């Protein structure tokens, strides 16, 4: 039986290989060469790369798809809150801001940003409908 040294990689012949037998089948280990295989770095790095790419794609497809750009979200809420030309109290302003935020959140759940930019009337209709539901 030949065994490779883990320190210097020298192959060593062991005389007792004929005396070592399998517990199940009874065959000897004589004539075989044994050495320790190092786990390839490629498999670990491949798994890491696949994990990072998968996370990026999931984030891009599911999380970013639901959000509008921050600038657009701010403009929609600001237009909604400040659409009334009347003077309102601070309490009314906060309630209106909450209502507009609720309506935008519901609208974003049902209409993606791509749909909203391609069909303004559909977005406005859904936003107004959601604004009535958020009372």
Report on this structure:
This is TFIIB-type domain-containing protein. The protein has 135 residues and is mostly helical. It has two domains: 2-34, no CATH class; 68-135. The protein is 59% helix and 6% strand. The chain has helices spanning 41-66, 70-81, 90-110, 113-118, 120-133; strands at residues 2-4, 11-13, 33-34. A three-stranded mixed β-sheet has the order 2-1-3, with no helix packed on it. Helix 3 (90-110) crosses helix 5 (120-133).
Question: What would the keywords be for this entry?
Answer:
single chain, 135 residues, mainly alpha, three-stranded mixed β-sheet
Q: What amount of the residues lies in strands?
A: 5-15%
Give the overall form: rod-shaped
Distance between the termini: 82 Å
What spatial order of strands do you see in the largest sheet?
2-1-3
Count of discrete structural domains = 2
Structural class by helix and strand composition: mainly alpha
Multimer state: single chain
E-strand count:
3
Report the total helices: 5
Residues in helices, as a percent range:
55-70%
Protein name: TFIIB-type domain-containing protein
Organism: Celerinatantimonas yamalensis
């Amino acid at each position: 039986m030949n065994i490779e040294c883990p320190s210097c990689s020298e192959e060593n012949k062991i005389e007792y290989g004929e005396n070592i037998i399998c517990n199940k089948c009874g065959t000897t280990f004589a004539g075989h060469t044994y050495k320790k295989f190092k786990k390839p770095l490629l498999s670990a790095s491949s798994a890491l790369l696949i994990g990072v790419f998968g996370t990026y794609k999931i984030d891009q497809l599911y999380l970013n798809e639901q959000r509008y750009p921050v600038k657009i979200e701010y403009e929609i809420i600001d237009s909604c809150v400040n659409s009334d030309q009347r003077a309102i109290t601070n309490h009314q302003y906060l309630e209106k801001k909450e209502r507009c935020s609720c309506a935008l959140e519901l609208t974003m759940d049902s209409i993606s940003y791509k749909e909203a930019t391609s069909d303004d009337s559909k977005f406005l209709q859904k936003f107004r409908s959601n604004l009535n539901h958020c009372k």
